[in-house]
């Protein structure tokens, strides 16, 4: 079946362009125009990894052409709006670093500097963490750690002074405020002001442990472990990563190796084994083991989860892949959307769909680690 996945990925890029991507079914159906976004960023990161692993120029050429279309000569980026202060819009910028190294195009360096400058102007909580978005004041979401921190670290590595202290401080704050010592899991969101309707008035945390948010955070930590140089800061980051993976691994479904939409409520009525977050945790385990941060047994755990996804939710019809079990979307608020209250009932109420980009992109990302495992 891996050969079919290879063919599927190549088919996706053959049917895609910067103006319209074959993996973003939701945007196609909604008629939304092309934009600079985190899902495309995840896919482009995956394609660059596949090219690195296999030497297949088709994946690299598509990725470079895609980013080249969005980034103008002066370093500005089509559709990017800095006024939104949206951490999601930072993620795709991580592709700029390998592309600049490969092509030497100054516009990629200019775009990275522009995104970095905007990130440094991002509003922060009083503890020093980036707000998730301008429309979510004082709020830290696990998702945002993936969206911003690997880019931040890559910028420091390539164009900065190699100072990772702010990154580690923000992650330490997340560990301090959002980790549940009893469950060994992270809450989806934290409001430093304790004023959001969904926030606990004492802790500031949301109510539940949403799988995909924990998955994004796990991917962020795995990637950061691969970016930061050896030393005290990386050692501490690895400790937090090991703790996260050790905690969440205990909640894997015994039969499939997948994880539940609301992680600690396995088997509860309405809960289900969810694809995108399971892909992310499998990726983090595989990469963590490859880097020597996690024990080797986690490579087997990650591979088992990936195979469980294929067995339960993946099918092929000719050259077309069908990937099910994907939570369409979930969030917290804003104030005028009180349905998104962080409760168990809320998370299981969001649509479960097939072939949405928020599941396909993590699936392909996880597949890059499966390919690395195969050639190791």
Strand composition percent: 5-15%
The unreliable regions are none
Mean pLDDT: 96
Number of strands: 10
Classify the helix fraction into a percent range. 40-55%
Q: Give the overall shape, derived from the CA principal axes.
A: globular
Distance between the termini: 19 Å
Provide the gyration radius in Å.
19 Å
The total number of structural domains is: 1
Query: Helices and strands: which structural class?
Result: mainly alpha
* Main β-sheet description: 2 strands, antiparallel
| Oligomeric form | single chain
Query: What's the CATH architecture name?
Result: Alpha/alpha barrel
SS element count, helices: 14
CATH class: Mainly Alpha
By CATH, the topology is Glycosyltransferase
Order of helices and strands: HHHHHHEHHEEEHHEEHHEEEHEH
Q: How are the strands of the biggest sheet laid out side by side?
A: 1-4
Structure notes:
A two-stranded antiparallel ribbon has the order 1-4. Strands 2-3 form a two-stranded antiparallel sheet. The chain has a two-stranded antiparallel ribbon with strand order 5-6. 52% of the residues lie in helices and 7% in strands. A hairpin with a 4-residue loop joins strand 2 (179-180) and strand 3. By secondary structure, it is mainly alpha-helical. The model has no long low-confidence stretch (mean pLDDT 96). Helix 3 runs antiparallel to helix 4, helix 8 packs parallel to helix 10 (232-249) and helix 9 (211-227) packs antiparallel against helix 10 (232-249). The protein has a single domain, classed as Glycosyltransferase (Alpha/alpha barrel), CATH 1.50.10.
């Amino acid at each position: 079946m891996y050969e079919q996945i290879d063919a599927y990925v190549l088919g996706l890029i053959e049917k895609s362009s910067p103006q319209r991507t074959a993996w973003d079914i939701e945007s196609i159906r909604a008629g939304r125009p092309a934009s600079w976004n985190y899902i495309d960023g995840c896919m482009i990161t995956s394609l660059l990894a596949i090219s690195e692993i296999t030497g297949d120029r088709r994946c690299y050429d598509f990725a470079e052409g895609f980013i080249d279309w969005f980034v103008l000569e002066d370093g500005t980026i089509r559709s990017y709006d800095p006024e939104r202060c949206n951490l999601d819009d930072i993620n795709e910028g991580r592709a700029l670093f390998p592309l600049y190294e490969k092509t030497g195009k100054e516009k990629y360096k200019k775009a990275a500097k522009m995104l970095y400058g905007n990130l440094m102007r991002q509003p922060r909580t009083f503890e020093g963490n980036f707000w998730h978005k301008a429309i979510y004041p004082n709020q830290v979401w696990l998702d945002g750690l993936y969206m911003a921190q690997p880019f931040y670290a890559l910028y420091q590595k390539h164009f900065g002074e190699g100072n990772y202290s702010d990154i580690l401080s923000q992650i330490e704050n997340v560990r301090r405020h959002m980790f549940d010592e009893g469950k060994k899991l992270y809450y989806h969101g934290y409001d430093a002001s304790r004023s959001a309707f969904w926030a606990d008035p004492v802790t500031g945390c949301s109510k539940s442990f949403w799988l995909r948010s924990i998955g994004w955070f796990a991917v962020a930590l795995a990637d950061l472990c691969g970016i930061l140089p050896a030393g005290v800061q990386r050692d501490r980051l690895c400790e937090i990563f090991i703790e996260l993976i050790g905690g969440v691994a205990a909640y894997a479904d015994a039969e499939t190796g997948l994880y539940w939409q609301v992680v600690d409520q396995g088997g509860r009525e309405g809960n289900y084994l969810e694809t995108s977050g399971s892909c992310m945790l499998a990726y983090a385990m595989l990469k963590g083991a490859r880097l020597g941060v996690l024990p080797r047994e986690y490579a087997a755990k990650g591979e088992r989860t990936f195979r469980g996804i294929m067995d339960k939710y993946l099918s092929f019809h000719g050259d077309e892949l069908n990937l099910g079990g994907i939570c369409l979307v979930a969030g917290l608020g804003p104030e005028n959307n009180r349905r998104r209250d962080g409760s168990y009932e809320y998370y299981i109420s969001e649509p479960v769909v097939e072939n949405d980009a928020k599941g396909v992109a993590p699936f392909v990302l996880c597949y890059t680690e499966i390919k690395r495992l195969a050639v190791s």
